[in-house]
TrEMBL record:
It comes from Trichoglossum hirsutum. Its EC number is 3.6.1.66. Its cofactor is Mg(2+); Mn(2+). This is Inosine triphosphate pyrophosphatase. InterPro entries: ITPase, ITPase-like_fam, RdgB/HAM1. Pyrophosphatase that hydrolyzes non-canonical purine nucleotides such as inosine triphosphate (ITP), deoxyinosine triphosphate (dITP) or xanthosine 5'-triphosphate (XTP) to their respective monophosphate derivatives. The enzyme does not distinguish between the deoxy- and ribose forms. Probably excludes non-canonical purines from RNA and DNA precursor pools, thus preventing their incorporation into RNA and DNA and avoiding chromosomal lesions.
Length: 219
């Protein structure tokens, strides 16, 4: 038996108007606005969830990491979804996103294309490690960002300035690792740096500094 009455939970009048128009007299459409939790997840949530799942699976302590590439013009996107634009994605991603991947065969240029309509090419790389002692144990987060905004208070002008260091550029340097060739940091792409140079300034090294401090008992 299909229902004769539907209670459409939404806070969006436009959605409601369209649903009403489409369903017509088919059902008695009621509507109610409720503030519902919508799981989408911040960068931290993603690593925490990844960590919880890993701990459940291995039934012991785990460390996981999730890397995001956030375009400022796109308000942080693609962020955690950057993996869908690259070839080295996991098996699950391969299956579900095969079509999207083919369309972006010239990776990581597909990522550049996302910014084609914007003048602002600035970006931040964010690395989030999460450690859990095991199932049921709350993960601890260690996060590093390339784009540490430095604020300066100038006495003369009385102005706060911020500097953004990361930028998305046409690929330069060997493609060894994901989006390294298109992420420029202080004039050079990650791919143009030696491993040592990248590891001195990278988002990952900044996160690992925090992890190291915690391991040493300093944080
Ligand atoms: O320093 C980096 N320089 C360039 N590319 C990078 C970097 N770090 C991660 N990446 C890529 C890998 C993956 O396409 C996506 C993050 O996704 P992310 O889920 O964190 O990595 P993953 O799936 O390869 O490994 P994991 O098994 O730890 O989830 O950005
Ligand atoms: Mg992954």
């Amino acid at each position: 038996m299909t229902p004769k009455r539907l209670n459409f939970i939404t806070g969006n009048a436009n959605k409601l108007r369209e649903v009403e128009a489409i369903l017509g007299d088919l059902v008695d459409l009621r509507s109610q606005s409720l503030d519902l939790v919508e799981v989408q997840g911040t960068i931290d949530d993603i690593s925490v969830d990844k960590c919880r799942r890993a701990a459940e699976l291995v039934k012991g302590p785990v460390l996981v990491e999730d890397t995001c590439l956030c375009f400022n013009a796109l308000k942080g996107l693609p962020g955690p979804y950057v993996k869908w634009f690259l070839h080295d994605i996991g098996l699950e991603g391969e299956v579900h996103f095969a079509a999207a991947k083919d369309a972006l065969a010239d990776e990581p240029e597909g990522l550049n294309n996302l910014l084609a309509a914007y003048d602002d090419k600035t970006a931040q790389a964010v690395c989030t490690f999460a450690y859990s002692e095991g199932p049921g144990s709350e993960p601890k987060i260690f996060q590093g960002r390339t784009d540490v905004r430095v604020s300066h208070y100038l006495l003369v002008v009385g102005q706060i300035l911020t500097y953004v260091k990361g930028k998305i550029v046409p690929a330069r340097g060997p493609s060894r690792f994901g989006w390294d060739p298109i992420f420029e940091y202080e004039g050079r792409t990650y791919a143009e740096m030696t491993a040592l140079e990248k590891n001195k300034i990278s988002h990952r090294s900044k996160a690992l500094e925090k992890l190291k401090a915690w391991l040493k008992g300093d944080a």
